[in-house]
Inverse folding.
């Protein structure tokens, strides 16, 4: 069982390695947590040019795919 504080990282670890990323509604469906949990981290990743929002989908940019470990690390628990 994954602890609730680890769920955002585990979710992003699995979905951000996909070129198409993830649909925003997948996060609450699969983790039981609000998307608000990810908001600050999504904004930080976007500001750094690692992630972009396309409609309701979040996906790594070309830079984000190149520096995937850095992108995923943004979602590690504090």
């Amino acid at each position: 069982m994954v602890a609730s504080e680890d769920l955002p990282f585990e979710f992003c670890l699995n979905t951000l390695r996909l070129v198409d990323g993830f649909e925003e509604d997948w996060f609450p469906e699969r983790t039981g947590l609000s998307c608000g949990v990810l908001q600050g981290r999504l904004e930080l990743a976007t500001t750094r040019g690692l992630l972009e929002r396309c409609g309701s989908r979040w996906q790594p940019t070309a830079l984000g795919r190149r520096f995937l470990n850095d992108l995923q690390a943004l979602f590690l628990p504090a």
Summary: The chain has one domain: 4-73. The two ends are 19 Å apart (CA to CA).
